[in-house]
Design a protein that fits this description.
Order of helices and strands: EEEEHEHEHHHHHEHEHH
Largest sheet: 8 strands, mixed
Distance between the termini: 27 Å
Shape: globular
Helix content: 25-40%
Radius of gyration: 18 Å
CATH topology: Rossmann fold
Strand order of the largest sheet: 1-2-4-3-5-6-7-8
Strand content: 15-25%
CATH superfamily: Alpha/Beta hydrolase fold, catalytic domain
CATH architecture: 3-Layer(aba) Sandwich
Number of domains: 1
CATH class: Alpha Beta
Number of strands: 8
Number of helices: 10
Length: 275
């Protein structure tokens, strides 16, 4: 286990995979970063530096719980860059981790060489995903045997009359098989305080972040899964439009974890972008 100290003294952990030029990979959740694995074999192309955000995985819980807030985690990412001795870094982020990555890029644009946002969350830039948009995407899976029960649960959640999030898990995966079940379960957050405070009041300032990203010159890749109910291709395309130098990739047949659904396709796309 590798560790470094955050600015407030919290001891944070990270793991590494592979060799070569590093790319820092931020997990979603906030959850134990182990669910990222080696991103479907991306470690054969680059050395992956995968931190556990504070209070998750092997990283310590902070004395001040308010430091779980997304905008405050930016300082932890900068402390990791300093610890690694990188003048600038390639940065990859998945899901909710994209909210952290773009806030880091907004504050430290000269410290990011390339930015890859995988199935990105959009709260930091104020892009809303409507219930109807999610239901329309969900209907594309109507030929699946699990669809009736999962769609009924989704309808209930959208209407505010249900909360069976486990029932809609198949919508987050390109294939709902045993491997997908195990992986989806492993990626669920454990520290619910960290989850609740990640998006606490003041965590996001979408207009300020959008303004900064409009001047962000580094190359940006946004990759969406065709069937991803969490980060639909439409909202990801809207996100891509906020950057002056971005490319959008929609991975066919993929959900929220494209490196699980088709590792070869995902790795080829990510490696070609990262170089």
């Amino acid at each position: 286990m590798h560790t470094f100290s955050a600015p407030d003294g919290t001891l944070l952990a990270y793991r590494t995979h592979g060799s070569g030029d590093p790319v820092v990979c931020l997990p979603g959740g906030p959850a134990d970063s182990a669910y990222l694995g080696d991103l479907g074999g991306l470690s054969a192309h680059r050395r992956l530096i995968v931190p556990d955000l504070r209070g998750t995985g092997r990283s310590a819980r902070p004395e001040d719980p308010s430091s779980y807030r997304c905008d405050r985690l930016v300082d932890d990412v900068e402390a990791l860059r300093t610890h690694l001795g990188l003048p600038a870094m390639d940065l990859l982020a998945h899901s909710a981790g994209a909210n952290l990555a773009v806030q880091y890029a907004a504050r430290f644009p000269h410290r990011v060489s390339r930015l890859a946002l995988i199935a990105p969350g959009t709260r930091a830039v104020g892009i809303e995903i409507t219930g109807e948009a999610r239901r329309a995407l969900a209907r594309l899976r109507s030929d699946q045997p699990w669809f009736p029960d999962a769609f009924a649960a989704l309808e209930a959640i959208s209407a505010g009359t249900g909360s069976d999030w486990d029932a809609i898990a198949p919508f987050f995966c390109g294939r709902w098989d045993d491997r997908a079940r195990r992986h989806h379960a492993a990626g669920q957050p454990v520290n619910m305080e960290a989850v609740a405070l990640f998006a606490a009041e003041g965590a996001f300032d979408p207009q300020t972040t959008r303004t900064a990203l409009a001047a962000f010159a580094a190359p940006v890749l946004l990759l969406a899964g065709e069937f991803d109910l969490n980060s639909p291709p439409g909202s990801t395309a809207e996100f891509a439009g906020l950057f002056p130098n971005s490319s959008l990739a929609v991975q066919p047949g993929a959900g929220h974890y494209p490196w699980i659904d088709d590792a070869d396709r995902f790795t080829a796309t990510a490696a070609a972008f990262l170089g």
